[in-house]
Write a structure and sequence with these properties.
The protein is α+β, with helices and mostly antiparallel strands. It contains six helices and ten strands. Helix 1 runs antiparallel to helix 6 and helix 2 packs antiparallel against helix 3. The N terminus and C terminus are likely disordered.
Length: about 290
């Protein structure tokens, strides 16, 4: 059939324009990584000079940790002697594969220098990994401060708190004392009032398994609100997370198409990309109708 000269209905033109307007903003967003930044913290214990021995050792540490992250989800490294010694550590979320872990640590090792220029100790948290360095030993003992948090709106179900406590208690025991988990455990429960799924996740760094891991996770639990749709708390040694409905895990399926919007510190291009993608899907559906 010859379509030259055919005139499309006005409604079709409108739908094409709608799709165009939805797609163009997406093309203008520099989404260079799927890793989602949460926060960073710069310790005020001292600074180093450019081109100093400490800076050179820090660069060695960050480079080594980045390389390690391509093969394992947790790593430590030390460079230097005396007052110029730099200790480094990273830990990736337990459900991530090696490429996703490496991507997060690689990005974190670059951004931590920008976020905390010339600082002798710093930590940066992503949803996918934690990276830190210091001029003191930071492995094999737990630290529950400083912290970073993310959260969203209140969830209207009085049964949430009890289900959350029961689910978290089981996961904390599993993460802390089941060595096969390497400090990571996730689980879920059902909220019957609105037939929603509660997803929970806890994780310690693998160097503090046992009572230290449990202590760190329970410390996080004591400060955690138990009536929200989404909550996440990061500390240097452990993380605790829960979300109702949607769970953006590295290797698990999502239960719903669109997550609730959390309050998120830092940049979140990947999340913005997701939201815009949903708008394009809606536009396509409109076009087909």
């Amino acid at each position: 059939m010859n379509i030259q000269g055919m005139k499309l209905p006005v409604i079709v033109y409108h739908k094409i324009i709608l799709l165009y307007l939805l797609i163009i903003p997406l093309l203008c967003i520099p989404v260079s990584s799927s890793s989602i930044l949460s926060d960073s913290y710069c310790e005020e214990i001292g600074t180093y000079n450019n081109n100093s021995t400490y800076q050179n050792n820090l660069n060695k540490v960050l480079s080594n940790l980045t390389n390690k992250s391509s093969v394992t989800g947790f790593g430590t490294y030390k460079a230097g002697v005396g007052s110029n010694t730099v200790y480094g550590l990273y830990n990736c979320r337990g459900d991530l594969d090696s490429p996703m872990c490496h991507e997060c640590v690689q990005e974190a090792s670059k951004l931590i220098i920008t976020e905390c220029p010339s600082k002798m100790e710093a930590i940066i948290w992503y949803h996918e990994c934690t990276l830190r360095y210091a001029n003191r030993s930071i492995s094999s003992h737990f630290e529950d401060s400083p912290i970073a948090t993310e959260y969203s709106e209140v969830y209207p179900d009085p049964n949430l708190a009890e289900l959350l406590r029961d689910t978290m208690n089981g996961l904390i025991k599993k993460a802390a004392y089941d060595n096969s988990t390497k400090g990571y455990a996730e689980g879920k429960g059902i909220l019957t009032k609105y037939v929603d799924t509660l997803h929970c996740l806890v994780q310690c760094t693998p160097d503090i398994l046992g009572s230290q891991c449990e202590k760190c996770l329970r410390s996080a639990m004591t400060t955690m609100p138990k009536d929200l749709t989404f909550y996440m708390i990061f500390s240097p040694s452990c993380n605790v997370f829960y979300r109702i409905g949607y769970f953006a895990a590295g290797t698990t399926n999502n239960d719903s198409a669109v997550p609730p919007t959390p309050f998120i510190k830092g940049t979140n291009n990947a999340y913005l990309f997701f939201l815009l993608r949903q708008q394009i899907v809606l536009g396509v559906q409109q076009f087909k109708s």
